[in-house]
Amino acid sequence: MEKKSRVLIIGTTGRLGHHLAEASLRFSHPTFALVRDSSFSHPLKSQNLQSLSNAGATLLRGSLQEEASLIEALKQVDVVICAISSTQVLDQKLLIRAIKQVGCIKRFIPSEFGLDPDKVQISGMDYNFYSRKAEIRRLVEEQGIPYTFVSCNFFMSYLLPSLVQPGLTSPPRDKVTIFGHGNTKGVFVQEKDIASFTIRTVDDPRTLNKVLYLRPPGNVYSMNELVGIWEAKIAKMLQKIYVSEEELLNRITETPYPGNRDMIFIYSAFIKGDQTYFDIGASGGVDGTKLYPDVNYTTISEYLDALL
Ligand SMILES: NC(=O)c1ccc[n+]([C@@H]2O[C@H](COP(=O)([O-])OP(=O)(O)OC[C@H]3O[C@@H](n4cnc5c(N)ncnc54)[C@H](OP(=O)(O)O)[C@@H]3O)[C@@H](O)[C@H]2O)c1
Question: Which listed residue, 36, 131, 239, 268, has the most CB atoms within 10 A of its CB?
Answer without folding.
Answer: 268
